[in-house]
């Protein structure tokens, strides 16, 4: 698509001069509607790319910013061009997955449909657009289905969980084993049974990230992304651009010093990324209430708690009693990954503001209790 659009609008070389002498006449003969349509397609591709990246990096505020941009562009489409169906469906999927645990949110006219059930409908549309990822498709589909039931159970909506189970599964033989298992689990009214813990929300996020990575590789030719990259490189921007960003106290009342500290971390992240070192900026605040975005994106922070942000967590850590759910998560993690693999257990488990050191200490305590 980008090649055809480049031909219609003309492509500029590195010096800013026209590649073809016919560019002026081409532009003047193009209708405003055609120009707007092409530009909108480029912008949607770019917005989808940004949304995918910030979802994968758990960049909460940036994710929601690009969510709004993508949603405006999608709402402006009178119909979805065939070559952009995957981008539109993926944007809608990610928005719903990010808010999947918020049963109070509505994306569909039918109030019974939860965000995750709505996400499943877009995942079904994505599956129809490609056939080469059958195994990954099936894994993600099953994870979404299980988590739709799990989220209802976590909120003690057992009747609704039974109702949604009826909507989710057909009478096909391939669906029957999982349907029977979930029906039995709902009857126990226990949201922390091994099956639900093994197919956790964090595992769903991890699988979605794997899909995003494949999608991004397929869309490396994104025209706006390529042109933006050329501009950044030619102007010597990138890591140095953050130095010139104005520092303001935001609505949560954070000080200039704290904001500057965040900008330094962001600059360090970009510098490391350009040199091939992959790290994440530490954006977690050291005190006070979590911002709204963090609460909504709580499901996206499980893996982020590993390694880099343990120092940040320590600065706000208050003595926090371990819950039976977290103990079960820890036991399941040890069973799957073995004693000592605390970072891996933390990344794949559903823990509340814990570090790998805290997991290690808790396991030692549990072991002593068991021995006594």
Give structural attributes.
372 residues; 18 helices; 63% helix; mainly alpha
Mean pLDDT: 75
Structural class: mainly alpha
Tell me the distance between the termini.
68 Å
Rg, Å, rounded: 24 Å
Distinct helical segment count: 18
Quick one: overall form? globular
Number of strands: 0
Q: What can be said about the biggest beta sheet? A: none
What is the succession of H and E elements? HHHHHHHHHHHHHHHHHH
Beta-strand percent range: under 5%
Low-confidence residue ranges: 1-21, 239-257, 269-318
DSSP helix fraction: 55-70%
Could you explain the architecture of this structure?
By secondary structure, the chain is an all-alpha fold. Helices cover 63% and strands 0% of the residues. The chain has helices at 2-9, 23-29, 32-56, 60-75, 85-98, 115-129, 134-154, 158-168, 176-188, 194-198, 201-218, 223-235, 256-274, 292-296, 310-316, 324-337, 342-348, 356-371. The protein starts with a helix and ends with a helix. The model is unreliable at 1-21, 239-257 and 269-318 (pLDDT under 50).
Can you describe this structure in just a few lines?
This protein is mainly α and 372 residues long. It has 18 helices and no strands.
């Amino acid at each position: 698509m980008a090649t055809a659009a480049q031909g219609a609008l003309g492509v500029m070389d590195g010096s800013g001069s026209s590649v073809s002498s016919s560019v002026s006449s081409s532009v003047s003969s193009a209708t405003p509607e055609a120009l707007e349509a092409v530009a909108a397609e480029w912008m949607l591709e770019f917005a989808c790319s940004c949304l995918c990246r910030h979802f994968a990096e758990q960049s909460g505020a940036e994710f929601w910013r690009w969510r709004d941009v993508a949603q405006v562009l999608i709402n402006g489409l009178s119909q979805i061009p065939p070559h952009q169906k995957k981008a539109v469906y993926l944007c809608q999927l990610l928005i719903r997955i990010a808010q999947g645990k918020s049963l109070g949110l509505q994306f569909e006219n039918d109030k019974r449909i939860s965000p995750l059930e709505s996400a499943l409908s877009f995942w079904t549309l994505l599956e129809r657009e490609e056939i080469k990822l059958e195994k990954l498709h099936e894994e993600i589909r099953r994870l979404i289905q299980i988590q739709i039931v799990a989220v209802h159970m976590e909120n003690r909506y057992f009747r609704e969980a039974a109702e949604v189970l009826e909507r989710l599964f057909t009478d096909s033989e391939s669906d029957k084993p999982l349907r029977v298992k979930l029906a039995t689990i709902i009857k126990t009214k226990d949201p922390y049974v091994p099956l639900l813990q093994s197919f956790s929300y964090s595992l769903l996020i991890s699988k979605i990230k794997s899909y995003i990575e494949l999608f991004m590789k397929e869309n490396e030719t994104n025209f706006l992304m390529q042109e933006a990259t050329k501009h950044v490189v030619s102007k010597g921007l990138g890591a140095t651009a953050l130095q010139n960003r104005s520092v303001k106290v935001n609505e949560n009342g954070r000080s200039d010093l704290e904001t500057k500290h965040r900008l330094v971390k962001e600059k360090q992240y970009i510098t490391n990324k350009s040199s091939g070192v992959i790290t994440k900026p530490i954006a977690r605040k050291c005190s006070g209430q979590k911002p709204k975005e963090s609460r909504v994106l709580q499901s996206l922070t499980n893996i982020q708690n590993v390694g880099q942000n343990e120092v940040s967590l320590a600065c706000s850590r208050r003595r926090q009693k371990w819950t039976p759910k977290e103990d079960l998560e820890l036991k399941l993690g040890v069973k799957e990954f073995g004693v000592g693999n605390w970072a891996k257990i933390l990344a794949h488990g559903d823990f509340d503001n814990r570090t790998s050191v805290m997991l290690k200490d808790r396991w030692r305590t549990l072991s002593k209790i068991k021995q006594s």
